[in-house]
Amino acid sequence: MAQFEMSETCRPNENEANTPNHMIIWLDKHIGKPEECVLLKSSFFMAMDPTTGLFERNLNKDDIDLSICLEAALLVRLDEVEFVFQAFNDIEKCYETIEKNLHKRIFFITSGSMGKIIVPSLVQLHPEAFPPENPIFIFCANLIMQPVEGVKLTNLWLQEFIENVLPYDHQDDLLARMTREIADYFAAEAQRLLSNQQPDEASQYQDWSQRMRRRHQALIKKQNS
Fold first, then answer.
1. pLDDT tens per residue across span 39-83
2. Which long-range contacts (CB under 8 A, 24 or more apart) does 204-209 make?
């Protein structure tokens, strides 16, 4: 078995004050496989190079493996916006991490098979963290799609949670929608901070929102080309 060393890439909690208050959690049995989630690993996020401390290389399989092996979060960057990112292939460990980070805005992605187990608990026990306006993304690339009232579902169990989930069978579509959701969250935070007389912080979130909207538009344009 490969031996891993702790690197700067896996230390987002050393200075909590500077740690992003938004994180992406991905739960998938096969997320560590090279052929899985290729867009996410190769082009969607920039990862920190442990030798320089700079975000100058793409997130790759080794980063994912390191996160899973050490049960550690990664600090990644999308369009100059930093995110805490953590990958899981174990439902219980994922659930525990979500519970420890309920004070953050979590953008959660899970497979259909693992989602069937974890989603009911999250929606029922932590409705404040996963209300309809913060949907859980279901990525079911290889499952038969079944139309129900015009909405594509990957499993019949999703019918019960249709207000809380967004199912996708292609990662381009998922990442485009997730980028839009992130942009909307940043915009809402900007308004909240402005109302609280925090104009500098509000300006930062507004800038992040605009960056995410540009990324969303670029992804949509790519899909339509």
1. 676 667 887 776 777 777 888 778 888 888 888 898 898 888 999
2. 208/81, 209/183, 209/184
Please list the residues that pair with 88 across neighbouring strands. 27
Separation CA 211–CA 150 (nearest Å): 32
Report residue 50 as tokens.
Answer: 């442990």
Instruction: Select 8-171's CATH number: 1.10.10, 1.10.3470, 3.55.50, 3.40.50.
Output: 3.40.50
Q: Residue 40 contacts by C-beta under 8 Å, 6 or more apart in sequence?
A: 26, 59, 171, 175
pTM of the model: 0.84
Query: What are 118's two structure tokens?
Result: 């974890």
Domain boundaries, the chain: 8-171, 172-225
- The set of residues, in sequence order, having a beta carbon less than 8 Å from that of 16 and lying 6+ positions away, is none
Q: Residue with structure tokens 């739960």?
A: 27
Long-range CB contact pairs, 89-96, < 8 A, 24+: 89/27, 89/28, 89/29, 89/30, 89/31, 89/32, 91/27, 91/117, 91/118, 94/25, 94/27, 94/118, 95/121, 95/122
